[in-house]
Design the sequence.
Protein backbone atom coordinates (compact mmCIF):
# COMPACT_ATOMS: atom_id res chain seq x y z
CA UNK A 1 0.00 0.00 0.00
CA UNK A 2 1.42 3.41 -0.87
CA UNK A 3 2.33 5.53 2.18
CA UNK A 4 -0.02 8.33 1.19
CA UNK A 5 -3.00 5.97 1.02
CA UNK A 6 -2.02 4.35 4.32
CA UNK A 7 -1.85 7.74 6.02
CA UNK A 8 -5.30 8.70 4.68
CA UNK A 9 -6.73 5.35 5.79
CA UNK A 10 -5.29 5.91 9.29
CA UNK A 11 -6.92 9.33 9.46
CA UNK A 12 -10.17 7.75 8.28
CA UNK A 13 -9.99 5.22 11.09
CA UNK A 14 -9.53 8.03 13.62
CA UNK A 15 -12.44 9.89 12.01
CA UNK A 16 -14.59 6.79 12.39
CA UNK A 17 -13.74 6.83 16.11
CA UNK A 18 -15.06 10.37 16.37
CA UNK A 19 -18.24 9.36 14.54
CA UNK A 20 -18.74 6.40 16.89
CA UNK A 21 -18.44 8.68 19.92
CA UNK A 22 -20.94 11.14 18.44
CA UNK A 23 -23.35 8.29 17.70
CA UNK A 24 -23.00 7.01 21.28
CA UNK A 25 -23.77 10.48 22.63
CA UNK A 26 -26.88 10.60 20.44
CA UNK A 27 -28.05 7.16 21.62
CA UNK A 28 -27.52 8.25 25.23
CA UNK A 29 -29.57 11.38 24.57
CA UNK A 30 -32.40 9.37 23.00
CA UNK A 31 -32.43 6.76 25.78
CA UNK A 32 -32.39 9.27 28.63
CA UNK A 33 -35.59 9.43 30.65
CA UNK A 34 -37.52 12.70 30.47
CA UNK A 35 -40.43 14.28 32.32
CA UNK A 36 -42.79 13.78 29.39
CA UNK A 37 -41.95 10.11 28.83
CA UNK A 38 -39.17 7.94 27.57
CA UNK A 39 -37.57 4.80 28.91
CA UNK A 40 -37.35 3.77 32.53
CA UNK A 41 -34.03 4.56 34.17
CA UNK A 42 -33.07 0.87 34.50
CA UNK A 43 -33.63 0.28 30.78
CA UNK A 44 -31.70 3.41 29.93
CA UNK A 45 -28.69 2.24 31.93
CA UNK A 46 -28.84 -1.20 30.31
CA UNK A 47 -28.93 0.35 26.84
CA UNK A 48 -26.03 2.71 27.68
CA UNK A 49 -23.91 -0.17 28.96
CA UNK A 50 -24.68 -2.47 26.04
CA UNK A 51 -24.03 0.17 23.40
CA UNK A 52 -20.98 1.37 25.35
CA UNK A 53 -19.37 -2.08 25.34
CA UNK A 54 -19.81 -2.40 21.59
CA UNK A 55 -18.43 1.12 21.21
CA UNK A 56 -15.32 0.31 23.27
CA UNK A 57 -14.64 -2.74 21.09
CA UNK A 58 -15.04 -0.73 17.89
CA UNK A 59 -12.85 2.09 19.18
CA UNK A 60 -10.10 -0.31 20.22
CA UNK A 61 -10.16 -2.02 16.84
CA UNK A 62 -10.04 1.23 14.88
CA UNK A 63 -7.24 2.67 17.01
CA UNK A 64 -5.12 -0.47 16.53
CA UNK A 65 -5.73 -0.42 12.78
CA UNK A 66 -4.93 3.30 12.59
CA UNK A 67 -1.65 2.80 14.46
CA UNK A 68 -0.66 -0.05 12.13
CA UNK A 69 -1.50 2.02 9.06
CA UNK A 70 0.42 4.99 10.45
CA UNK A 71 3.47 2.76 11.03
CA UNK A 72 3.16 1.48 7.47
CA UNK A 73 2.99 5.04 6.16
CA UNK A 74 6.06 6.07 8.18
CA UNK A 75 8.05 3.07 6.95
CA UNK A 76 8.56 1.54 10.39
CA UNK A 77 9.01 -2.24 10.50
CA UNK A 78 5.97 -4.22 11.57
CA UNK A 79 6.30 -6.84 14.30
CA UNK A 80 5.55 -10.41 13.35
Sequence:
Amino acid sequence: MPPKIARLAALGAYGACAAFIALFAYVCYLAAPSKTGGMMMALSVVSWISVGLVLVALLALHIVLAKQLQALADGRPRPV
In short: The chain has one domain: 3-74.
